[in-house]
Amino acid sequence: MLYSEELVEEIRSRNDIVSIIGSYIRLQKKGSNHMGLCPFHNEKTPSFSVSSSKQMYHCFGCGVGGNVFTFIMEYENYSFIEALKFLAERAGVNLPEQEYSEEAKKQSDLKGRLLEVNKQAAKYFYYQLVSPRGQTAHEYLVNRGLTEEMIKQFGIGYSNKYSDDLYKYLKGLNYQDDFLKLSGLVTIDEQRGGSDKFWNRVMFPIMDINHRVIGFGGRVMGEGSPKYLNSPETMLFDKSRNLYGLNFARASRKSTLLICEGYMDVIALHQAGFTNAVAALGTAFTVFHANLLKRYTNEVLLTFDSDTAGTQAALRAIPILKETGLTIKVINMKPYKDPDEFLKAMGAEEFQKRINEARSSFFFEIDILEKEHDLGDPEQKTKFFHETARKLIGFSEELERNFYIDAVAKEYQIDVEQLRKLVNKFGNQIVVGMNEPKEFKNEAGKGKKTPEDGITKSQKLMLTWLIENNSIFDKIKGIIGAEDFTEGIYNQVAVLVFEQYEKERSVNPAKIINCFQSKEEQSEVAALFSAGIRGEMDEAGWQKALSDTVMKLKENSLDKQSQKAIEVNDTALLMKVITEKTELKKRNFTFGS
Predict the structure, then answer these.
(1) CA separation (Å) from 588 to 517, 581, 584, 591?
(2) Nearest CA to 421 among 394, 393, 380?
(3) I need a labelling partner for 150 at 20 to 30 A (CA). Which of 30, 271, 306, 547 fits?
(4) What H or E segment, with its residue span, contains residue 517?
(5) Distance between CA atoms of 482 and 473, rounded to whole angstroms?
(6) Could you tell me which of 458, 439, 457 has the C-alpha nearest to residue 449?
């Protein structure tokens, strides 16, 4: 570990998890915990729980969880060290640089070297663009209406027709093949050697919010496929977590952000004075994109292409953006396809008018619905209003919902009371069905959770109960211990739990999570501390559940020991296990309150 356990724990304890997470997402107190919509997967019903007493979070939908370090690592896409520094600065704790370990230095140095090689590549691409080799690419940009000032500001460059040109240049700077493979700039083949990821393309450097180049996007010159190509994912670059142009847009001091579909749209808008424009990097909008936008604005305006594909992209993005609490409007660019075309034909003043006239995302969705139905046909008209009523249910606040009901009734000339009755009818149907089981799928595509087997569930329950009620340690002493938790990480966690209780006579789950540095392990550990809820049982039910769980754990542990004894032909161990099994059958576990 880079820093001492004591320092890491001090930083964690000085950053209250409810306060930290509450600064990113909206949390509402529910009993002893705080609940909110999970920022890591798409959901409509809050399943993201933050515990002030345990100083940890857990999502019952997608399964993520951990302590305050885990959250910052996952949300900000930080390494453990970066999250530690972020929280240390927030808490006013000075980190002594001399405590860096060799391994940590290597990781930090690797990231710095990747940033440096990307910077060198960006300089090289720009040099190629302004050299005779880049004449065709430069003319393409000028013909698209870009000024030299904008080309330079966005660092646009060119990768020439030779497929190993950049590779040779970087080798000349003494970069080795193993490192270049990690950069995403080149491909290394054992037989053919190194080749460039990008060639014969106009190059758009992708920068983080601190103007550091983390990746590239390239548009092919002439015929070629794919038309646009992004850097592969690296230690620096994840297209689902970054937005093109945000490094400039966040400094625009405008109250809204414009969301486009492509690099050229962003650059054209910035050139026209709309310096608050950003774009997703050739991927569908994600929860991470929405949360990133929420840091800088409360309102976004969609300027997606006006064709069918652009409309569908907008319809997919709207619910994701809404769930973060953003206000969304949609700009109508017809008869032009995109902002670049519109600005060339109509100019900045007319585009500003379209911004002023932007339609709320709700009415944009209703407009699309209207086009899908023939309102001259009574049956089609009825279907249209049924679907509209279902969309109106989405406004959870009654006052806002009533405003929209009034607006829809006025625009489509329907009796407002009939529409309100229809909305209430569908709303009641949803309330009645709320007790039905719900399946979740997380953002990373893990799919449905697999059912836990009995022993796995028992070990998870016991770990949760131990941290919630420390008095159980004394009740089970001499019956089960850390060695009776046999399932992989369960044993590692149990050892830490029992050791911490022996030393401190209490258990701090957030401190135990600190012992695991990967986000995946931290989520898994958090899940172990978020199992059964005793509040659902009466005292008799609780005592029986505890007794049954202790029995299952001990039986499973003895079975494992018996298998081991047989495998290694340890007669003494086998006899010991048989004796303990016999005694176990005679025992009647009862635990008083």
Answers:
(1) 41, 13, 8, 10
(2) 393
(3) 306
(4) none
(5) 11
(6) 439
Scan for tokens 């530690």, then name that residue.
84
Tell me the two tokens of residue 561.
């020991």
pLDDT at 534: 45
Apex CA 85: angle with CA 83 and CA 87, to 5°?
Answer: 70
The two structure tokens encoding residue 584: 């176990």
Q: What angle do CA 420, 423, 428 make, to 5 degrees?
A: 125
> Where in 482-575 does DSSP place strands (E)?
none
Q: Give the CA distances from residue 420 to residues 6, 207, 380, 405, 423, in Å, rounded to whole numbers and listed in that order.
A: 59, 48, 19, 7, 5
User: In 3D, which of 245, 240, 212, 216 has the Cα closest to residue 230?
Assistant: 216
**Strand residues in 117-255 grouped as ranges (E):** 157-159, 186-189, 193-196, 201-207, 213-220, 228-230, 243-244
Instruction: Return the axis-axis angle of helices 378-392 and 361-371, rounded to nearest 10°.
Output: 160
CA distance 219 to 198: 9
3-state secondary structure of 207: strand
Residue 439: pLDDT over 60: no
Tell me what pLDDT residue 532 has.
54
Q: Residue 13: which of 61, 42, 54, 45 has the closest Cα?
A: 54
Per-residue pLDDT reduced to its tens digit, 252-276: 878 899 999 989 999 999 999 999 9
Using DSSP bridges, classify how beta strands 299-302 and 327-330 pair: parallel, antiparallel or unpaired.
parallel
Contact between residue 562 and residue 577 where contact means Cβ atoms under 8 Å apart: yes
**What does the mean pLDDT of the chain come to?**
83
* Rounded Cα–Cα distance for residues 320 and 339 (Å): 23
DSSP label at residue 426: H
Compute the CA torsion angle 497, 499, 504, 510 (nearest 10 deg).
Answer: -30
Q: Give the integer Cα–Cα distance in Å for 145 and 139.
A: 10
* DSSP-assigned states of every residue in 227-288: SEEEPPP-SS--GGG-EETHHHHTTS--SEEEEESSHHHHHHHHHTT-TTEEEE-SS---HH
- Mean pLDDT over residues 206-216, rounded? 91
Q: What are the strands of the beta sheet with 359-360, ordered from one edge? A: 243-244, 277-280, 256-260, 299-302, 327-330, 359-360
Q: Which domains does the chain have, with CATH numbers?
A: 5-96 (3.90.580.10), 104-237 (3.90.980.10), 243-364 (3.40.1360.10), 373-435 (no CATH), 454-586 (1.10.860.10)
pTM of the model: 0.64
> Which burial class, exposed, middle or buried, applies to 299 when counting CB atoms under 10 A from its CB (0-12, 13-18, 19+)?
middle
The DSSP symbol for 209 reads T
Which stretches of 357-435 are DSSP H helices?
361-371, 378-392, 398-412, 416-432
Q: Is 168:102 a contact under the CB 8 Å cutoff?
A: no
Quote the CA–CA distance of 556 and 560 in Å, as a whole number: 6
What is the dihedral sign for C-alpha 419, 423, 424, 428?
positive
